Amino acid sequence: MNKLLLFQQKVGAISKDSTNPFFKSKYFDINKLIEEIKPILNELGLVLIQPLSLTPINEKPALRTILIDIESGKDLSNQMTPLPENNDPQKMGSIITYYRRYAIQSLLFLQAEDDDGNMAVKTTPKTVAKSAPVMLVNNKKNMVAKLLLKKAPAIKTASDYKDICMNLTGFELLPANYDTIINLLK
Asked: CB–CB of 53/63 below 8 Å?
């Protein structure tokens, strides 16, 4: 765990240098992310791999994210994330890339630097979760849920909501994104 601490002390915020023209949003490309973190991981003797796998119970496609300390030979993390099934190879490739990027970001506790309007005016984005009353957040959550069910009636679990929401809107199902998601789904 000391090496993870050293990693977090050395890495800065990752610039969102790519643009999604469909949603007019910025994100950091997986290659840019690897370019930023790989030299620091190498310096610390850490190897990050992300093989595709199958879940042990129902043999569904999954992404493994494994962080290995070369010196000790120990896995510092070995996470498996089930992937949504999709028969279109291009869409599946996009799904895998998306999950890889967010698995790395989550595992290494990476911050994304906001290069667009928020940096230009030097303000921080508003978060609905901290400022809105609980009743308002719950009403928006219910609206998002109803709209998602209309667009994708096969939703059964919270994970389905999250995955389908991301696929339909490009945004995570978070209180801070409710307004944006609702507007995109209308």
From this structure: yes
Q: Could you tell me the pLDDT band of residue 115, with boundaries at 50, 70 and 90? A: very low
Q: How far apart are CA 183 and CA 168, in angstroms?
A: 12
Residue 133 phi/psi, 5-degree rounding, is -60, 150
Instruction: Say if residues 147 and 163 touch (Cβ distance below 8 Å).
Output: no
Tell me how far the alpha carbon of residue 30 is from its chain's centroid.
Answer: 11
Joined together, the tokens standing for residue 96 give 């895998």
Contact status, residue 67 vs residue 75, Cβ threshold 8 Å: yes
Q: CA separation (Å) from 65 to 9, 18, 107?
A: 21, 23, 8
What's the CA gap between 50 and 96, in Å, rounded?
A: 10
| pTM confidence score | 0.56
β-sheet bridge partners, residue 46: 69
At which residue do the structure tokens 């643009």 appear?
A: 19
Question: pLDDT tens for residues 40-99?
Answer: 999 999 999 999 999 888 889 999 999 999 999 999 999 999 999 888 999 999 899 999
Which residues, 6 or more positions from 110, have their beta carbon under 8 angstroms from its beta carbon? Answer: 11, 13, 14, 33, 37, 104
Tell me how far apart the alpha carbons of residues 157 and 106 are, in angstroms, rounded to a whole number.
Answer: 21
